[in-house]
TrEMBL record:
Name assigned to this protein: YchJ family metal-binding protein
Residue span, YchJ-like middle NTF2-like domain: 33-130
Gene3D superfamilies: 3.10.450.50
Entry-linked InterPro entries: NTF2-like_dom_sf, YchJ-like_M
Superkingdom per UniProt: Bacteria
Amino acid sequence: MPLTPPSICPCGSGLGLTECCGRLIYQGLTAETAEQLMRSRYSAHVLRAIDYIWQSWSETTRQCTTPEAIRDWAESCEWLKLDILHTDDGGAADDTGTVTFCAHYRLGDHTHQHLEKSLFQREAGQWHYVAHCP
Ligand SMILES: [Zn+2]
């Protein structure tokens, strides 16, 4: 089900969607940092931009999911808020980085937090999500 995009970016940056994750999700700009990609992946869940989420997965770990699984997960929850808790590397001059985040969402009558430390890797000049860290 398509959603009307909000004017403020869902990632919590305080910027407008078109100045923030919307540039990556809808206009094909490349994330400069792992955190930017992380934020845009969260926003893409809110916006149900399934193709974008799929493309943001590393090719080497795409077998861990399917576009259908991404869609089911994105649409099953009401996404409430993203907190970026910590980043390691993942800068414009790095090839790998981690982002620790907490995504708040509502499922049925309950709110939940998904806490994850994600590993990102730059492949062919673009940041991709590899996996969550153990
Ligand atoms: Zn954003």
